[in-house]
Amino acid sequence: MTTTSSTDTSALPALPATPERVKIGVVSISDRASSGVYVDKGLPALKEWLGAALHNPIDFVERLIPDEQDGISAALIDLVDAGCSLVLTTGGTGPAPRDVTPEATLAVADKEMPGFGEQMRQISLAFVPTAILSRQVAVIRGKSLIINLPGQPKAIAETLQGLKAADGTQKVNGIFAAVPYCIDLIGGPYLETRDEVCKGFRPKTAIRTRA
Ligand SMILES: Nc1ncnc2c1ncn2[C@@H]1O[C@H](COP(=O)(O)OP(=O)(O)OP(=O)(O)O)[C@@H](O)[C@H]1O
Ligand SMILES: Nc1nc2c(c(=O)[nH]1)N[C@H]1C(S)=C(S)[C@@H](COP(=O)(O)O)O[C@H]1N2
User: Which spans are transmembrane here (predicted)?
Assistant: First the structure.
């Protein structure tokens, strides 16, 4: 009789020879960047970080939009409908009157994922005492994970990858460590991280290997 242990991953399909293509939505939400008062640094920072963190080839779908709740919700719906497995927003998470990104994100949610916001505020405290001013949320819509990041361009890498000590050991885990497995669970592509940037974590039973 053949027995299968709880850590036997042979039941999972083998990975294709090269990492799967993934479609990722990146949304920069800023009144001033979207109207040309200053140059947008949000989209370049998001694309640069994701390109460095993933082995998967990425098709980016980009939006640079003002802080308008209905427009933000419409952009998020569009990106999910376009097949983005992951959507990252930057900006508009604070307490100012025009900061409405969390409301716009919750308005399109099937499920809220509160752990991401909790962990991001915790991580950000290692960088700035004002971390708790970000109301950022994460949600599932269809087969897509949508995550809000703060608007400061440097906050993108800070929250996604966390903080490393001078000797290279991870002092504070970034939230991206939990993203690949979350996307597995909602039926998306298998994300493969570059461990030196951010090591994705999966339970042993969810780790797939190449044939
Ligand atoms: N897309 C961006 N590109 C470059 N810098 C940005 C961007 N978004 C925000 N910043 C910087 O981070 C700061 C905090 O971001 P926040 O989202 O709170 O912007 P804001 O003050 O509401 O103004 P705006 O929406 O017009 O960018 C901004 O004041 C700006 O210095
Ligand atoms: N990692 C990180 N988190 C951060 C910050 C930052 O610089 N780095 N800025 C904080 C500040 S000052 C504010 S007001 C809130 C909300 O920022 P937002 O409105 O630009 O999204 O995010 C906070 N979180």
Answer: none
Residue with tokens 């802080």: 67
Give ∠ CA 147-132-54 in degrees, rounded to 5.
Answer: 30
Using CA positions, which residue lies closest to atom 12 of ligand 2?
A: 130
198 CA to centre of own chain: 12
Residue identifier of the C-alpha nearest atom 9 of ligand 1 = 151
Task: List the CATH code of the domain at 22-206.
Answer: 3.40.980.10
H-run or E-run covering 140: strand 138-141
**Closest ligand (CA of 62):** 1
- For residue 85, the tally of other CB atoms under 10 A from its CB is 23
Distance from C-alpha of 84 to C-alpha of 26, rounded to nearest angstrom: 10
Domain chopping of the chain, boundaries: 22-206
Interface predicted TM-score (ipTM) of this complex, two decimals: 0.95
140-187 pLDDT per residue, tens: 999 999 999 999 999 999 999 998 888 888 888 899 999 999 999 999
Report the DSSP pairing between strands 111-112 and 22-29: unpaired
Measured between its terminal Cα atoms, the distance across the chain in Å is: 25
